[in-house]
Amino acid sequence: MEKGFTFFLSTLFLLMASSVMTQTNITTDQLALLSLKSQIISDPFYFLDESWSPTTSVCHWVGVTCGSRHQHVNSLNLSNMALTGKIPREFGNLSFLVSLDLGSNNFHGNLPQEMTRLRRLKFLGLSVNSFIREVPSWFGFLHQLQFLSLGNDSFTGSIPSSFSNVSTLETLNLYFNSIEGQIPKVTGNLLNLRVLNLKGNKLVGFITPYLSNASRLETLKLSYNSLQGNIPEGINNLHNMNWLSIESNQFTGSIPFKVFNISRIEFIAFTGNSLSGSLPNGLCNGLPKLKGLYLSKNKLHGPMPTSLSNCSQLQILSLSGNEFDGPIHSEIGRLSNLQILYLGTYHFTGEIPKEISNLIQLEQLNLGFNSFSGSLDMEISTYQG
């Protein structure tokens, strides 16, 4: 009897202790979020004003999701709420947070270093805010991070080398900031990286060949920077690539033939560089999924390869502003999915192939500033850009 009573008391004590611990942790989460609310100076749609009340459970607040087992806050999504304010230090007390999305608001000021305590964090979305600071090096301490988006945030400085510590990282978005310097070699250490978007910054120098180590990379966007040199031959090691964009940089030399052997690639965007040489005749033999080929405003020359007709999925073909010559072959009429065709240069000759009229999906056509003869009888909206 005494043993049974003792067991009952022990069980009751553990239940009470667990209840107190849970209440304490929920209170900690609640205080952290109320601290955030106190830093919000504009909430035009009253999302937080009407929902974030100390009299209701934090798990019922708008944007908050709690874990089913321990009732801790494990997800916070306040994206697209037009909020203006700062992120307080107390935010680091949300120790069970796995996903945080504050994108498309007007958060500003510093990202508090106390956020390094969010060791369970896997998803961090802070894009389209106004932080105007250097990219914090302490991101490298978030060792579970898989998704990091800091696009269009006015960040400055260079890409911290500490990112190499986050071996779990799959997506890194730093597009449209004011990040300077070179692409660090450490990006090659991110072996799980699938998306790297550095578009619209102030990056200089060469594309690091170490990027070819990130063999799982599917999307690489480096457009609108000041990168230079040749496109590295090792880029063909990126067998999983489906989007490769290096538009509006200062790349020179010829396009490595191996680029046209990345069988999964869907979009190749090299517009606005100083690339030279001719296009290989086997251009589309290894690109069964290619949908967009953007090569305008370079120094490419020679004839347009007849093998382009093998790109059966092609929807956009942009070759304007180069030095291509010779005729446009009738095989172009086999591109039945083509929607946009830009061939405005100064050197194409011969008759406009009547087979273009077979492109029933075509919406925009630019053949301007060439030396064509003949006419084209089809109804289409022409584009002379």
Keywords:
single chain; 11% helix; seven-stranded parallel sheet; 2 helices; 385 residues; 27 strands; Leucine-rich repeat, LRR (right-handed beta-alpha superhelix); alpha/beta; 15-stranded mixed sheet; elongated
Distance between the termini: 92 Å
Flag low-confidence runs.
Answer: 5-24, 381-385
What is the H level of CATH, i.e. the homologous superfamily of the domain at 1-131? Ribonuclease Inhibitor
Overall spatial form? elongated
Task: Look at the helices and sheets and give the structural class.
Answer: alpha/beta
Name the helix and strand elements from N-terminus to C-terminus, one letter apiece. HEHEEEEEEEEEEEEEEEEEEEEEEEEEE
Number of helices: 2
The amount of helix comes to 10-25%
> Average pLDDT, to the nearest integer?
89
Strand order of the largest sheet: 2-3-5-7-8-9-11-13-15-17-19-21-23-25-27
Question: Tell me, what is the CATH class of the domain at 1-131?
Answer: Alpha Beta
CATH topology of the domain at 1-131: Leucine-rich repeat, LRR (right-handed beta-alpha superhelix)
Question: Sheet bearing the most strands, described?
Answer: 15 strands, mixed
CATH architectural category of the domain at 1-131? Alpha-Beta Horseshoe
Per DSSP E runs of 2 or more residues, the count of β-strands stands at: 27
Cα radius of gyration in angstroms: 27 Å
The proportion of strand residues reads 15-25%
